[in-house]
Structures are given as structure tokens and as C-alpha cells.
Design goal:
The protein is α/β, with parallel strands linked by helices and 180 residues long. It has 6 helices and 9 strands, in the order ββαβαβαβαβββαβα. The chain has one domain: SPOUT methyltransferase, trefoil knot domain (Alpha/beta knot, 3-Layer(aba) Sandwich). It has a 7-stranded parallel β-sheet. It has a two-stranded antiparallel ribbon with strand order 1-2. It is globular, with a radius of gyration of 18 Å.
């Protein structure tokens, strides 16, 4: 890889070669970090799960998925990593969130709510944190909303109602991981 010059006035930007990137990253896949979990518990589209799994790998998080039969196939199809990612298969989403909360996990939901904090104001996770992602059309169900410790809103200027699960989850994961 060489240097890229954006204009005659700008300094050259050095693109890191793959060999250098490999040296600076972890040597092998993890078994389970367990500190940060992305939980798309009511997914609408399987393609989003593979994308979210890749983001989980990038930030050192795990993915918690619901017991739907099509989820495993969607993850296998969408996983572009060389190794399998860290995936926790859960039972009933609301029961699982209740158990996580009772165990001391911080439960954060991406949802449009009056009490929501803006994504920019969300601090990095300091303890085990579950980021709950709802259905793209209907959001997080009311019984699960009651289990949230915090709601986070991703501000939007355009006309869309919300971002898709993979994009919203990726933004929240990077922020919670302290990488933004």
C-alpha cells in the first residue's frame, strides 16, 4: 500500500497494509468477551444479523439471538468473518432480559422514548451491558421496555422513521465500546 494524496495542499495519508493490521489486532478469536452483548431480540430481516455479528467482532462484543429457526441460517449466510463469531442463543427474550438484569447487567435499549438520551451522550460501558434492539417497525415490546435501565435515541434529520437494526446496533456498539 502506498500513500494517497487528497490534494496538493494536503499531507499524504498512509494506508496500513494488511500485514501491519494483523499484527496490531488480537491473534485469535475469543471464546466470549461477555462484557458487551448486542441483542436484536425481535429481528425483521436476517441480513441484518450477519452485519451485526461482524460489528460485534470489530468492537469485542457478543451477539445474543432469539430462538427463531431461521436465525442460524441467517447468521451463517451473513457471516463474512473467517471464524465464527460469539453468538449466544437465548430462549424467551423477555425472560432472558429479566435474568440478565437480575444478574446485574446494565440493559440499554435503542428506542424513541421521552426519557431517551442522545447517542452522543451515551457513556462507554463500564460493566456487563446488553444493548437491546427492537423490531424495525414496532420497536421494543412494552413488556421488554419495562426492563430497560436506559433508552438511547439515535437522532435523525431525514424523513425515515428509524435506521435498520444493523446500522442502529453498530452505532450503539461502537459508542458503548468506547470507540467513538
Amino acid at each position: 500500500m502506498g500513500r494517497i494524496r487528497l490534494s496538493a495542499m494536503s499531507p499524504a495519508i498512509r494506508v496500513k497494509p494488511r500485514k501491519e493490521l494483523r499484527r496490531t489486532r488480537r491473534e485469535r478469536a475469543h471464546q466470549c468477551w461477555g462484557h458487551l452483548l448486542a441483542a436484536p431480540l425481535w429481528p425483521m430481516h436476517g441480513a441484518n444479523l450477519g452485519t451485526l455479528l461482524r460489528t460485534c467482532d470489530a468492537v469485542g462484543a457478543c451477539l445474543a439471538v432469539p430462538p427463531f429457526r431461521w436465525v442460524d441460517e441467517a447468521l451463517a449466510r451473513g457471516n463474512t468473518l473467517r471464524r465464527p463469531g460469539c453468538v449466544h442463543r437465548i430462549g424467551n427474550p423477555t425472560d432472558w432480559l429479566t435474568t440478565e438484569r437480575a444478574a446485574g447487567s446494565h440493559i440499554v435499549g435503542v428506542e424513541l422514548a421521552d426519557e431517551a438520551v442522545r447517542l452522543a451522550d451515551l457513556p462507554a460501558a463500564r460493566r456487563r451491558t446488553v444493548i437491546v434492539l427492537g423490531h424495525e417497525s414496532t420497536g421494543i415490546p412494552p413488556d421488554a421496555l419495562d426492563l430497560l435501565d436506559l433508552a438511547v435515541e439515535i437522532p435523525m434529520i431525514g424523513t425515515g422513521h428509524s435506521l435498520n437494526v444493523a446500522v442502529a446496533g453498530s452505532l450503539a456498539l461502537y459508542k458503548l465500546a468506547g470507540l467513538l
